Amino acid sequence: MERTFAMIKPDGVQRGLISDILKRYESKGLKIVAMKLMQISEEMARKHYAKHLNKDFFPELIRFITSGPVVALVLEGDNAIEVVRKLNGETNPQKASLGTIRGDFGISKTKNIVHGSDSKESAEREIQLFFSESEILSYERAIDEWL
Ligand code: RTP
Ligand code: MG
């Protein structure tokens, strides 16, 4: 089973979309193995988005992601990294397909509601940045044998 890091960004929380978004991840069959409501510090934001340090949008991105509470998640499932990115949709919500989270709920390139790790390396790094080992649970669900 693969694990990925996902996040409901400050706009998703402020707009009351937490339950809609969790519903999509859960309904797809992904298992929530860690979850917390938290406010990201500037230092953590800079670490999380380190690869975008030299982009024009970096300062705006850091300001936005630290602007209010987010929901940090570790999701587990077969091919979870790719599955979450598909559910999230393209980066620009105006281009994202309808039926995806960004396609259905977003309109701004910065305020694009959700994050999902883009590779195994990113997933491992981001999970470690946001969660300690003891916050990540291992458990069976009755439905697991049907997925
Ligand atoms: P994410 O990391 O948040 O899952 O999004 P992503 O992989 O689809 O996009 P990425 O290229 O990693 O960009 C990270 C975040 O930066 C913001 N962004 N703003 N204004 C802009 O031109 C612009 N481009 C990217 C978005 O919030 C994007 O999710
Ligand atoms: Mg990314």
UniProtKB/TrEMBL annotation:
Binding annotation for ATP: 9, 57, 85, 91, 102, 112
One CC-aspect GO term: cytoplasm
Superkingdom, natural source: Bacteria
Gene3D superfamilies: Nucleoside diphosphate kinase-like domain
GO molecular function: ATP binding; metal ion binding; nucleoside diphosphate kinase activity
Keyword Acetylation: no
Alphabetical list of Pfam families matching this protein: NDK (PF00334)
The EC number(s) this enzyme carries: 2.7.4.6
Main subcellular location: cytoplasm
Active site: 115
Cofactors (names): Mg(2+)
Family matches, as SMART domains: NDK (SM00562)
Protein task: Major role in the synthesis of nucleoside triphosphates other than ATP. The ATP gamma phosphate is transferred to the NDP beta phosphate via a ping-pong mechanism, using a phosphorylated active-site intermediate.
Family: Belongs to the NDK family.
Substrates-to-products reaction catalysed: a ribonucleoside 5'-diphosphate + ATP = a ribonucleoside 5'-triphosphate + ADP; a 2'-deoxyribonucleoside 5'-diphosphate + ATP = a 2'-deoxyribonucleoside 5'-triphosphate + ADP
One BP annotation, GO: GTP biosynthetic process
PANTHER family membership: NUCLEOSIDE DIPHOSPHATE KINASE
CDD domains (alphabetical): NDPk_I (cd04413)
Subunit structure: Homotetramer.
Family matches, as HAMAP family: NDP_kinase
Keywords, comma-separated and alphabetical: ATP-binding, Cytoplasm, Kinase, Magnesium, Metal-binding, Nucleotide metabolism, Nucleotide-binding, Phosphoprotein, Transferase
Name this protein carries in UniProt: Nucleoside diphosphate kinase
